[in-house]
């Protein structure tokens, strides 16, 4: 409600007036959303001012509109917000100050926590009781992909009970055991989350996280314990019923403030804090696949100790991991150390011996060069095979909808490995690789406009496994530079293997490199990874490209 006065407002105010403009009226304002004229995607707030000479009529309309808004069940009422104060060159606090009035105007209650150290968000969320968590409709990260990864692991660490990923016969570990009660104590190291910037000199690390960089401790690793998991579905009215994932009511969101913001770009198509805030306020929701990564061993001689981590965008070994590890030597250089480290790792041109087994399913397609081919050439695959047409994930994507209505029951969705173990067929790939990576989503960013995998979908239940075999340095540079060109196909080289799969296992006989999980280092020589379809809900409506 507004004071009595004339109908007037700023340039973007739209008016609906009964009578003459010069007379004073009782007024109320409706806050809405519109699009900028010169750019079709970013949303901006606008105001609609209504007036009438009768105060009762204004109040009746006001109460009726308030009632309609309150009856929209999808809109969040209470949110927990983590603000990273030093992410993206210190943009976290300023971005939150920009969008907070929108949340206040929409009467959304927010509990704001400004992070003070690495692992702050993880510790807070993992220590929350289910009763405390049920008081919120979701958690929002004002930061980049690194802060979001910390929130993701903090929530899922004790609330996502699922069998370990399936493993090939003869691997030696039970990957699909249903006896998760024995898996009670695992450990996660959040001491060295990787800052945003990764290997930005080439294509931009798809999950660079300098949003965590200023808060890191490089000398005292902090081991954070993951307690045993829970399988029951949440019941909002029953506080004794534990929260578990996936569910329909809890959502995660990001107000983009990092250096790349690959998750936001892949889910909304825009890197705009106001647009993301408005999507959160309206309660827009999409399901996101999450990669469950199980580390069996940290080194070839280490004991078998399964450790679970989750990644929302990318998991990579070799080149991607070495850029992270190399950058730790040059912390005094600030953000420039990532460009420098990326160049150094590239010039070393080191390959890593490994074996990778991926799960072949009826829906799996593989775009690979034959292992017997001469991988020193650069002949694109399309000259020998007709490649399937790429279907890009967009708003109301029919591929994601078909996956969500594929006939799986709720138990199968909660325990993905139980579904993909049926009629499983494993395909092995062995050799020396420059990098081994798995993209959960497209991983779009400003340096790679199409991302690592242009046709990766948000919730189809698949990973895109990328195996880059050893090749001459100029060809590898050619491959990397293709990511910077929109519409190019960097995966069509003969030394590149691209497999769309639901799970894979990686084995290295040497302690040569580290894994990059959403930009955070993860020491492992044997890992199993599976896609958990639609594990979390995200405040977005899909990429509007």
TrEMBL record:
Polar residues bias spans: 215-232
Keyword annotations from UniProtKB, A to Z: ATP-binding, Calcium, Kinase, Nucleotide-binding, Transferase
EC category name: transferase
Domain of life: Eukaryota
UniProt cross-references to Gene3D superfamilies, sorted A to Z: 2.60.200.40, Probable inorganic polyphosphate/atp-NAD kinase, domain 1 (3.40.50.10330)
Entry keyword Calcium: yes
Enzyme Commission numbers on file: 2.7.1.138
Gene Ontology MF: a single term: ceramide kinase activity
GO biological process annotation, one example: regulation of programmed cell death
Cofactor: Ca(2+)
Reaction it catalyzes: an N-acylsphing-4-enine + ATP = an N-acylsphing-4-enine 1-phosphate + ADP + H(+)
Chain spans, region Disordered: 213-235
Domain DAGKc per the UniProt entry, residue ranges: 74-297
InterPro entries noted in UniProt: ATP-NAD_kinase_N, CERK_C, Diacylglycerol_kinase_cat_dom, Lipid_Phosphate_FormReg, NAD/diacylglycerol_kinase_sf
Keyword Chaperone included in the entry's annotation: no
CC annotations in GO: membrane
Record Pfam families: CERK_C, DAGK_cat
Protein name in UniProt: Ceramide kinase
